[in-house]
Amino acid sequence: MPLTRFFVLLVLLLSAAAASAEPRVVLDSTSVNLTDFRIGYYIDDSRELTYQQVRDRSFRETASTTSLGTNARVAWYKVILENATDSDLALDVQMPHAYHVESVAFHEERDGQLVRSEILDLDNLGNSGIMYHGVAVYPVTLPANATTTLYVRSFAYSHQWFALDIYDEEHSRQALVATNNDVALLVGMMLALVFYNFLLYFATSKLENIFYSFYLISGLVWIALSYGLVASLFDAYGDEVFMLNISLITMPIFLVLFMMAIFETKTRYRVEHRFLQALLVPLCVMFVWGLFDISAALKPASTAAVIMMVVTLSVTFSLLRKGNPLAKFFLVGHGFFVIFNVMAVLFYKGLIEPTYIASHGVGIGIMLEALMLAFIISHRIKILEDIRASQDELKKQAATDPLTRLYNRRYFFAEAGYLMEVAKAHQQPLAVLAIDIDRFKQVNDTHGHAVGDQVIITLARALKAQSRNKDLLARFGGEEFVMLLPETNTDQALACAERVRAAIAAQRIDLSPGKQLSLTVSIGVATVNLATDSIETALNRADKALYEAKHKGRNQVCLNNDNQTTEPGVTQKP
């Protein structure tokens, strides 16, 4: 019997010790700014316990910021506040994530008696004065040298993400003013990216831009909702607002669609495309489920997130192995997303200690991935521009003479046809010059082809200097060049030809110290009869005038006016 009494006494002593070991917050100053302290918690699986019933239950210890996972929809928290000062303390107990729950209740107890209760139903706030932009602010006055116990009941929609802070009046005001500045910055950056990508879509009609924009919209909606920006800006709470959490499901849907578009999996990577298609099926099922019961649809969200990460990473590694130039960048961005989301999932399930990075992991991961996806889009645009530039360069090479960089014969005829149509439409005059280097064969035979090439290059530069932007200048081969002059009548064409002849005659090419080579050309001019001429017939008449200039002694300009009205004072072919 004495032994039995001993064990009973020991049990009572241990129980008393356990009771006395309950975490408490001792306040020994009138300045109070507490964001990290110990509290008790009890998970109410029945979701029906009252304050009177729960106060006799055993509470487990945790931090004032904690996550109990998705299986703790209803939890009670116990905070023992001991005022160790000689004056009453007027404090605010803040629940910064109140916007994230269905309801929250505060029960204030002193000396074993209920002093005050405050219940918030976020679907029906009524005239409650303790909700401030998503933060529940419960004012409490602690008598001097007395202990007050606060019981807080949190009924969460999905996961039990809880925090309590205790402030004096000044610190409480500062905390409320500083709420969500970081989240507003993230949302603002993402809105800018959305606007930019919508502009890109309208400019390019690329599907990846529209998928990326909707991915960003889904991400910023979820960030703004989950981190309290919606509540802070719009005082919006309850079931209807909680429905916006469906963006957590639409976000991976648009990410997968973005991958299909940016990597062109449908046409280039059939196996990877089928894997991404298979991933879309459960995501779309979850989306439809969420339209009817968003709380239930979000329960498997963590598992779905793991599956999505595994599939998308596997596809990215496969694309990287196959040499896709964008895969490495996507892997970096998606790697950030995966790392921070794993931290967030562990936090939501209550498996790791709450930290800022863990609690904001999804938002940080979305932002980092969004920035990398923006880089991928920009990099792809650069790749396409490089390809287009290469194609343009090839077209230019096909259209130009490699020595002089003037247009060649083929391009001249194609462009001249267009210029003739323009001249006909506007009834504007058009003229053509045929230009040939005098005694060019002699230059080649005497000084070699290197000097001959230098002569041709010098002539080309002089022709460019004497031509207008709208003139069409081409090398037809060897020492023969052609100029087509839009909006130019006979007198203007002759004046232009004379300027060209004089400018070339003034050119000198250095052969050796003290020795130079002069250069002259003969030019034939013909104006185009828009009613009867083709560009070929006009060129033939310019060639006839050119041969006449050669016959008359070279370094001259001659006009062929066949099929034209004779103009007085102009040398014509007889």
From TrEMBL:
InterPro entries the UniProt entry points to:
7TMR_DISM_rcpt_extracell_dom1, 7TMR_DISM_rcpt_extracell_dom2, Diguanylate_Cyclase, GGDEF_dom, Nucleotide_cyclase, Rev_trsase/Diguanyl_cyclase
> Cross-referenced CDD domains, in alphabetical order?
GGDEF
> Has the keyword Transmembrane helix been applied to this entry?
yes
Q: Does the keyword S-adenosyl-L-methionine apply?
A: no
Query: Which class of enzymes does this protein belong to?
Result: transferase
Q: What Enzyme Commission number does this protein have?
A: 2.7.7.65
The GGDEF domain extends over 428-562
* Pfam families listed in its UniProt record: 7TMR-DISM_7TM (PF07695), 7TMR-DISMED2 (PF07696), GGDEF (PF00990)
Q: Which SUPFAM superfamilies match?
A: Nucleotide cyclase
Mind telling me which residue stretches traverse the membrane in this protein?
A: 183-203, 210-230, 242-263, 275-292, 298-320, 329-351, 357-378
- Look up the signal peptide feature and give its range: 1-21
Taxonomy, superkingdom: Bacteria
What name does the UniProt record give this protein?
diguanylate cyclase
Q: Source species, please? A: Halopseudomonas sabulinigri
